[in-house]
């Protein structure tokens, strides 16, 4: 049987703050060797383009090609994948895509402008990015749901070209991933990966077009490369391990909650699953369910390690205390498995996604509820948001002064500019003041 | 007389693309000594808190204090500054603040949710950050306008506590900066600066509260520190040199345009000023104005260096070609000094702020038009936006499944999760499916 230890905390214990800090502590270790390797790859791709991409693809993925063009996947091949996968998978992908598209359309932002009393026009022009790059991991962690979640918001935003890269180590192609690309409307696909693919998207090569922003998950090399090219292009967040926090009033079937915790823990050994409840008895029941169900899980080893290292069952006085602890954690996923989630949600200030009520398994949100599954991790929900259409739109301020407005506000600008010692600013404004 | 050379380009020349790339090339040089110094300071502040802040403040700013509390500026002192500055400055700051507040209120985003046919609730909850940190440079580049532009959007967003830090090298306090803080509603002010202030805001000390996001400009030490703490807290952009691109049809007074170019060039030697016009004759006129006006400028040396190194006058066939080049540059500031800016703006896809018409001097936007003056530089307007209220709000997805919805979508999630080999996900969803 798989061995597991399950940490217990109580908000009433004297050292609770310290214990909670220790539980949450997770540091993105900077690996200097990885940094050096990634810088070398990026420099090569930047200066030598396609040739470097081909060399690294042969070296790391054991895929050799005469040109990067050979590594492009045609739209016909994407359609072929769509027709080849099992019918229930295709149907599920299409249903998920429809719901994701429907939700994200509500995030679209529009340009606006208004005119003040002087006839001065002020506004904000909202435009899509020209091109977005989507990194999709290959090999065993190939997730078609990620293709939908990253590509659909970009297309909804109006991005003209979504360029996807996906490595095919040893030539292994995942048809479900290609089918998802077809459904999401991805414009071009290259079977390249790693830091070399990030470099190709950031700098452009003769074959791969330079994009404006790179999104999507990847291993440490991909994450490091994204961090390096940030500024040349935009990037989405650099994700830490996935986390779930469940607040339960003690009345949800404990097997359900145990499985919800597992669904996070099965991602990887660093994933974090926390349950908070005012009922110690209920925490005991969930612990029993964990021990009962664990041996039945396909990924029992990963789950056991993750639970033993990073999980906790936390006893609190009441649901308000649970909400306060949740705000301290700012979890990626927050399940409110309680009778009245509507009331509790009022007390929640920080969370990537909030799952209301006993029927709302977090896993539904991962695939097909509609909202994005790319969410801020490691407490960054304190200041950041789920991936959305807004990540693929940007704003330009619009200012149009009438002669009257320039006269009136030029005087204000002049005083402030001279106060800051910037006289060219002052004189530029003063030219537009009417002589009196 | 101040010497200046003025670069001329023509979009018709054979090597125009290369020449333009060379003109725009600007690389944020990574300075390893600065990196090391900043990492040391951050580590000290993180581990030793107030004591380290006091040591570095004494070392770098020649300000010694017995405690960090002594370095806090009281609200009474801010009010005192407001009453002490010249009446026209106070009035100008208040007028600017009113316009900035009015514009930014239109950026506020609201929560929304909707219910689908199955009774499933989906939505987006929008909340402000708890605390924001605002870095304000001290010494000679002390800009009260920056205080307004950074603090007002945070307060409009509903941030409960805005904590400002401003170094006072050798104890020199800028009353106009403190007055701006009073007008903007800054909650607390500490006279600390450099990497130590960034560290104090990011990690918190006994005296300085930890914030969720740090915004505001600073020197290379401050910028490097912000880059380092990114992830622990949010940060705004890391700004490159300021730039202006003016598109003129040749009918604006050439002195006005020369002064607009100067208003950018006077910031620093790296600032970039570019003028594009279909009229070669007009470019000659502006060049003559530049040579005529330069000797009359207070900051003539900085302007001459900036113009000689980084400015250009570019001749194009027509305004559409100007717009295409502008989209390639994605300028921070774009002046459309033409007869029909409304028509030209349709062709503009990327710019931080767009100034429409001959009366709209960019300098008006720096101070009091209303929109923010913190804008994406170095071509990053391709994928990023002006600082705004949205930088101080974040979103949480809301998902609430009805029993019926969980039954229907649980089946979809189950197929997709099993397709990805994530069976805990599948089983968690399947628990919520009604047995048939």
TrEMBL record, chains A, B:
The keyword Oxidoreductase applies. Pathway: Amino-acid biosynthesis; L-histidine biosynthesis; L-histidine from 5-phospho-alpha-D-ribose 1-diphosphate: step 9/9. Binds 1 zinc ion per subunit. InterPro entries: Ald_DH/histidinol_DH, Histidinol_DH_CS, Histidinol_DH_monofunct, Hstdl_DH. The keyword Zinc applies. It holds the Pfam family Histidinol_dh. GO terms for biological process: L-histidine biosynthetic process. It catalyses: L-histidinol + 2 NAD(+) + H2O = L-histidine + 2 NADH + 3 H(+). GO terms for cellular component: cytosol. The active site is at 332 (proton acceptor), 333 (proton acceptor). GO terms for molecular function: histidinol dehydrogenase activity; NAD binding; zinc ion binding. Keywords: Amino-acid biosynthesis, Histidine biosynthesis, Metal-binding, NAD, Oxidoreductase, Zinc. PROSITE patterns: HISOL_DEHYDROGENASE. Substrate binds at residues 242, 264, 267, 333, 366, 420, 425. Its EC number is 1.1.1.23. HAMAP family: HisD (MF_01024). Catalyzes the sequential NAD-dependent oxidations of L-histidinol to L-histidinaldehyde and then to L-histidine. This is Histidinol dehydrogenase. It comes from Marinobacter profundi. The lineage of its organism: Bacteria, Pseudomonadati, Pseudomonadota, Gammaproteobacteria, Pseudomonadales. The gene is hisD.
């Amino acid at each position: 049987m798989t061995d597991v230890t399950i940490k217990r905390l109580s908000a009433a214990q004297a050292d609770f703050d310290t214990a909670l800090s220790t539980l949450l502590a997770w540091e993105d270790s900077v690996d200097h060797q990885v940094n050096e390797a990634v810088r070398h790859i990026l420099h090569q791709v930047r200066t030598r383009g396609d040739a470097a991409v081909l060399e690294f693809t042969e070296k790391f993925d054991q895929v050799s090609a005469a040109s990067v063009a050979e590594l492009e996947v045609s739209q016909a091949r994407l359609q072929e994948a769509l027709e080849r996968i099992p019918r229930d998978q295709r149907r599920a992908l299409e249903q998920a895509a429809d719901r994701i598209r429907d939700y994200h359309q509500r995030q679209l932002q529009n340009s606006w402008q208004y005119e003040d009393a002087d006839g001065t026009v002020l506004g904000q022009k909202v435009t899509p990015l020209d091109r977005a790059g989507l990194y999709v991991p290959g090999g065993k962690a190939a997730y078609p749901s990620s293709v939908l979640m990253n590509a659909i918001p970009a297309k909804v935003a109006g991005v003209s070209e979504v360029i996807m890269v996906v490595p095919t180590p040893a030539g292994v192609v995942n048809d479900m991933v290609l089918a998802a690309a077809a459904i999401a409307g991805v414009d071009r696909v290259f079977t390249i990966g790693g830091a070399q693919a990030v470099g190709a998207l950031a700098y452009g090569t003769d074959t791969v077009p330079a994009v404006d922003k790179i999104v999507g998950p990847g291993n440490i090399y991909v994450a490091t490369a994204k961090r390096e090219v940030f500024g040349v292009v935009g990037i989405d967040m650099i994700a830490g391990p996935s986390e779930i926090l469940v607040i339960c009033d003690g009345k949800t079937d404990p097997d359900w909650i145990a499985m919800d915790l597992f669904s996070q823990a099965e991602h990887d050994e660093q994933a974090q699953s926390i349950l908070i409840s005012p009922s110690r008895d209920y925490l005991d029941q969930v612990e029993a369910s964990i021990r009962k169900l664990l041996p039945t899980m396909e990924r029992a080893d990963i789950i056991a390690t993750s639970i033993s290292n990073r999980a906790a069952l936390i006893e609190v006085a009441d649901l308000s205390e649970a909400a306060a602890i949740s705000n301290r954690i700012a979890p990626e996923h927050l399940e409110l498995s309680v009778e009245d989630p509507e009331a509790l949600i009022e007390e929640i200030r920080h969370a990537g996604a909030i799952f209301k009520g006993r029927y709302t398994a977090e896993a539904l949100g991962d695939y097909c509820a509609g909202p994005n599954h790319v969410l801020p991790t490691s407490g960054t929900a304190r200041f950041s948001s789920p991936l959305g259409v807004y990540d693929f739109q940007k704003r330009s301020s619009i200012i149009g002064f009438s002669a009257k407005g320039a006269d009136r506000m030029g005087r204000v600008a002049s005083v402030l500019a001279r106060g800051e010692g910037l006289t060219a600013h002052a004189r530029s404004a003063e030219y537009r003041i009417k002589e009196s």
